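Late entry, written up from scratch paper. The run itself happened at the end of the previous shift, but nothing got recorded in the book at the time, so transcribing now.
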Amino acid sequence: MYVAIDPGKRVGVATFALDGSDRSKALLPEEDFRLYLINHIRMQNNYPITAFIVEGFWLRQKEALDQVGSDMPASRTYGAVELAAQMMNVPLHVQPSSILPQACKWARVPYNPRKKHTPDQLSAYAHGVYWLINNKIRRHPVLDA
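Output as recorded:
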């Protein structure tokens, strides 16, 4: 199973089967996401994760003032995934948020550049689809037309 994650206070999670087909999409509060990871660590033999695909978070100068006073939930979530990946010996693939417009197109998820943020579970899904297509695990949708 592949697990794609959009980290933050609300964590978008999308899972995919080994062949790249869709499994699930969810939106979890940060606390519930940590429990989700703990359960996967405990059950890794029953439900093995092949890779984590995560939308990276880099603090950019033009957005730094928006983060004043923030306890940085995206960074905390990323750290939790990084630890889980290390404990489970699972690769962690980080993608920039800048790929989201293309990823949404490939995943057939609505993307509106005027809106501040794509819903977290759809962002995770789009990141997962983008990575799976680029790694030749899932067919590009143009091939199905």
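Residues 73-88 form the longest helix (16 residues).
(Scratch paper discarded after transcription.)
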